[in-house]
Amino acid sequence: MERKVPQSEAVVMLNMGGPSTVEETHDFLLNLFSDGDLIPLPLQKWAAPIIAKRRTPQIEKQYTDIGGGSPILKYTQIQGEGMAKLLDELHPETAPHKPYVAFRYARPLTDETARQMKADGVKRAIAFTQYPQYSCSTTGSSLNELYRRGKAGEFGDIEWSVIDRWGTHPGFIEAVAQNIEASLAKFPASERSEVVLLFSAHSLPMSVVNRGDPYVLEVSASVSRVMERLGHSNPYRLVWQSQVGPSAWMGMQTGEALKGLARLGQKKVVLVPIAFTSDHIETLYELDLEYAEEARELGIQVERSESLNDSPVFIRALADITVEHLKNQKKSGPTSLQLGLRCPGCTNATCGHQKTWFAAGGRA
Ligand SMILES: C=CC1=C(C)c2cc3[nH]c(cc4nc(cc5[nH]c(cc1n2)c(C)c5CCC(=O)O)C(CCC(=O)O)=C4C)c(C)c3C=C
Ligand SMILES: [Fe+2]
Ligand SMILES: [Fe+2]
């Protein structure tokens, strides 16, 4: 679709969200377990409240231990506002740029954002996933939710375009690499090149990997690019964390990797979160409290590479990705897809997204 008339552009930051306060944990989990794109459960409507209730005390404790809630809304707002300011300078043709946040499981939920955008009279918007790498269970779920809300008329009449992945964008890679370099600098210069970079990403059930979900490949591509940017200065591994439940998940697990490194006599490690851009339980609880403690017990000296959070290099990358998207509206490619709002990520028959996607001729 060609855009002829210069007009202001809304940029909708899509992500899962997190409970801003401990009290919001139950509702967050209820929304999460109700999402069939993330966790398809038999009798979902009935099973979700039971599982959410059972899991709430444990997850509440984790959010309490990391300071009383998730910082994801704070950082998404900082990132969105910083990006929009830069966009006004870098792409004045579509100024003013207004950032919105649409979370999947915590406030502001998509329906709330839709109401706001409708009230603001938004006519054009970019759905900008904040997951660098594509998974049907994350970005796919957010796109499907936008699609449902759009179809119900909740957004009003908006012309959409989609940025659905950017895990190899040079700006993102640079931001991650700089944070790794800052962590490496904490080791004495003479020991620095021995430090193992342990990239850690949220795992994925093997059932999802095996149906062709692109996430594992795209996370691997991010790691590869970061290592290229670092000139392969250090040994590295990509490992997986945060599996939930008894089914098989992508491995090897971060905890097992730490034990393996200790056995091999590798006693210096930088843990690098690579698949999520703001701090959350995975970084502040699992990496900083659980794994770092485990590593120290194993005699490993461990540093954790900072999450991108309010990194100016990262915020500039978000603006650059958006500008490239705006300039390449008609080309196909990872950051310039004119897809309409449905999960395009699947090349398999079991996910269920691709059915509606191809039926719509690749457009919603
Ligand atoms: C890129 C990031 C993530 C992917 C991919 C992902 C897939 C995925 N997750 C579950 C199940 C759960 N995830 C939960 C919380 C959670 N997940 C991510 C990120 C990804 N998930 C984040 C950032 C969080 C929020 C928690 C936090 O770290 O702050 C939970 C709830 C928490 C819990 O009960 O342990 C579940 C459940 C599946 C099944 C899945 C892929 C299909
Ligand atoms: Fe999908
Ligand atoms: Fe998850």
UniProtKB/TrEMBL annotation:
Pathway: Porphyrin-containing compound metabolism; protoheme biosynthesis; protoheme from protoporphyrin-IX: step 1/1. Its EC number is 4.98.1.1. It is found in: Mitochondrion inner membrane. The keyword Mitochondrion applies. It comes from the Eukaryota. Keywords: Heme biosynthesis, Iron, Lyase, Membrane, Mitochondrion, Mitochondrion inner membrane, Porphyrin biosynthesis. The keyword Mitochondrion applies. It catalyses: heme b + 2 H(+) = protoporphyrin IX + Fe(2+). InterPro entries: Ferrochelatase, Ferrochelatase_AS, Ferrochelatase_C, Ferrochelatase_N. Catalyzes the ferrous insertion into protoporphyrin IX. Belongs to the ferrochelatase family. NCBIfam families: hemH. HAMAP family: Ferrochelatase. This is Ferrochelatase.
